[in-house]
Amino acid sequence: MKKILTLAVLTVLGFTNVNAQKINFGIKGGLNFANISGDNTKNFDAVTSFNFGVLSEIPISDKFSFQPELLYSGQGYSFNDNTVALGYLNVPLMGKYYVIKGFSVEAGPQIGYLLSAKNESINVKDSFKSVDFGVNFGLGYKLDNGLNFGARYNMGVSNINKVDNSSNKYTNGVLQLSVGYFFF
């Protein structure tokens, strides 16, 4: 886990030295529509939460950029009028390809660290694994003034269920809509 985070930081720093004068830094926030899928999740419903964080965009060429992010992401699911709220610190490492000026398609891996897990007011963090891996796919639009908009789907690829006596496998799924602003 620490090796992956260290590799991500070193990668970002390496790109920083190459194109330091062109890097954009900003903030973003928005809505999450989250659920889990897997074994015995037929009756689980999606929950609505939020996401917010910081990001940078590092141009590699005129058409391609690297966009690392650090986001808080509210996720979870509901069943039988009970909501399980999961709070993650996510680190998406997105590759962005600009199809036309301002409009991009993006994809990349993500690692998430579980910060909290509650069923109503009961702490259920011990029922979930502390690290989640996923893959993101999305679209973005950036205006010349720094304002940007995004729609992204995060597909979890690792089992988040930690219950020892259960063979059920669960993965996260999150649709994110966001608005952001690049300061410089």
What does this structure look like?
This protein has 184 residues and is mainly beta. The model has no long low-confidence stretch (mean pLDDT 90). It has 1 helix and 9 strands; from the N terminus they run H-E-E-E-E-E-E-E-E-E. The radius of gyration is 17 Å and the shape is elongated. Strands 1-2-3-4-5-7-8-9 form an 8-stranded antiparallel barrel.
Rounded to the nearest angstrom, the distance between the terminal CA atoms is 31 Å
Tell how many strands the DSSP assignment holds. 9
DSSP helix count? Answer: 1
- Spatial order of strands in the largest sheet: 1-2-3-4-5-7-8-9
Mean pLDDT: 90
Largest sheet: 8 strands, antiparallel, barrel
pLDDT below 50 for ≥5 consecutive residues: which ranges? Answer: none
Alpha-beta classification: mainly beta
Helix content: under 10%
Shape: elongated
Radius of gyration: 17 Å
Proportion of beta-strand residues: over 45%
- Following the backbone from N to C, one meets helices and strands in this order, namely HEEEEEEEEE
